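Internal QA ticket QA-208
Title: Verify multi-chain structure generation after dependency bump
Assignee: T.L.

Test input:
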Amino acid sequence: MTTKQAPRKKKLRSAGFSNPNALKLDIPTPPTLRECLAQNLFGSGISPRGYRELSVQHSKQLIERYPSLYRLADASPVSSSPPFAREGFACGDGWFAVIDKLSAKLSADPNLVVSQIKEKFGLLRIYFELSPLPSNEIEEGTDIALAEAVAESQMTCERCGKPGKHAQREGRWSVKCDACTAEEARRKSLRPWMERLLAGLPAAPGGRSRLDLSPEHALALLEKYPGLYREAWTAPTSPASRFAAGGFEIGDGWFRLVDRVSARLAKDPALHVVQVKEKYGRLKVYFERAEGVPRDPRLDAEMKPALDEDADESERTCEVCGEPGTHEERHRWWSVRCGPCDQIDEISAACERIGKLVGGLDLATFSANEMIQDAVRLALVDIGRAAAGQPSKSRERLPGIGWDRLEHFKDVTAVKGMPVDELWRFASEEAPVLERKLR
Ligand SMILES: [Zn+2]
Ligand SMILES: [Zn+2]
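Actual output:
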């Protein structure tokens, strides 16, 4: 569930001072609840309530099914408007079925308009616009329907809709099932990188891209060895714990190796990992031992050489893709790469070279300088050769690169014959994008 904030107030466009009415005319009307939902934004513009807000999809369904009851979805959401116009359905998605059932009963009375619907003290609360007053008969039916819905909300997990318990949790009343209670406690202690992983993003924000452990692999390790990687969930043992700060700082190619190392370490329940990283092109896993737990000498004796063997194997395993690789100094860093992944680094380096050649130039200067043009053409041929060496596996791993086109640049004659403006476009526009994509 996303928790984007609805754009309540758009910025005023600069109003022309010559026209005294310009400012007035320029004041935009904030979008209504229906308009927010149409853009997949939540209703509540004031504070996103996270899971305690009905999903966009369910909100839309209710507004469409019961247009008269929820007609305030089209009202202007200014501060004097009823809360429903500003906040929409201010309760968790688990109550959708309860609200749907209640709405079907309430919509029998065309005069009823919901002015607020929310969770309060862990129960469903609904308020109506008072005029025109409904007839007594319908009012009675409304009361019964409301009482039933509130009773139902009291037994329904507000988060997932399964049977839940109405109880005070950390000083606040709510209805939750056991699973959601546990999940929430777990999320509270989450590290920022864990939140990113759970959202399917790489752990490092804007980080190492090609050298990030994929979210699926990271989560698989955390799930398989919860004790060993307990710092993903619990308070770190020391402020210096790198694992708590950043998670797995290795490329996806080493996933299998880390899995194997983890299985070895997990045999000793006193151990937990405080850092997983690459150093001088070698896998490093640092761990700590809980105090007061007796050591198992046999386990200790077999663990050390096994771990050394795993680390040795990392020096023969491409950190990007896991294929056999060579350990050497590249671009002033030690790393392990297979042939194709090494060549991708070459493409990056060629793009960087092109960037340095044309940086600060304009087309006219570039057109007049054949020496620079030739240097760019040379770099282009390097890119073409490296691209031609990419097997389909690594092309699939990096989609959106336009491999076939890059491959054409290996043809020296074609590159020599490339018109200057085309060369310029590649150097000034495409090369920087390509470099970013391959980083
Ligand atoms: Zn639940
Ligand atoms: Zn590789």
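Spot checks passed. Strands lie at 89-90, 114-120, 123-128, 165-169, 172-176, 248-249, 271-279, 282-289, 326-330, 333-337.
Status: verified.
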